[in-house]
Fold:
Amino acid sequence: MQAFHADSFTIELPSGHSFPMPKYRLLREAIALAEPGIRVREAPAASAGELALVHEPAYIAAVAEGALSPAQQREIGLPWSPRLAERARRSVGATIAAGRAALGEGVAANLAGGTHHAFPGRGSGYCVFNDVAVATRLMQAEAHRCRRGLLRVLVIDLDVHQGNGTAAIFRDDPTVFTLSLHGARNFPARKEPGDLDVDLPDGCGDADYLAALDAALAETWRRHGDRLPALAFYLAGADPHEGDRLGRLKLSFDGLAARDRRVFDALHARRIPVAVAMAGGYGRVITDTVAVHQRTLCEALRSWRAWTARTPAGGCGT
Structure:
């Protein structure tokens, strides 16, 4: 299974900052030691033209040139630097690469990504560019260029925070369906309506969460009928974990693994390729967050093996 990373491009943060920059390197190192079936490669950077499929040119230029205002930087929550700009481009590039690999092999991953709070003209909540939105638009454009017709996309967002940027970008777009399970009282305070939003109460544990997920997936398939999406992006946030500082839910390690297994199995059963992004995770103990992400990737690898046992790799023109 192919996975893509951009953890060479770290940024300096003030002491005590809540963004867990080391987790990306730790996850890549853990995968290298424990999961030889995952082929990890450094992500390419998304081009300005690719970013412009979703983002406003003036905003792209401001990020590239260090022209973000202090207010814009505060909303993002990360100080601007050339490395921040490069990391943001490569995080998008990793999801683009994972999307292409998933279409060929069934399952692929970005070891970061899931930056779902970014809007076309602004970033927010540690998100500079919206990687899933850009990758969706590019995969649709490439499918059209290959004469495959309309590529319908499903976004399954199981980060504990609602993907408000993604929901806003795809509002009223029948080619993209957004499903989100998130904390009702968590960030962002103002939710953007998606196609299917499930608000969860503080303290929600394994049984209630998995029941809500089962119901949401069943409703997703019901709404699609026989017009199933041809690609899914799965934001597998670690922040619903009971040890997360920002999550406010109470899922166990096993509950999160069961969540991932349900998603991958449901997609595989319907022959929908999936690119998975790690999204959020802010554990009080950083190795707990890494462990949640690693188990997500184990479930992804299991699904990829099932895919590759049945489906040859394909490409444009196949």
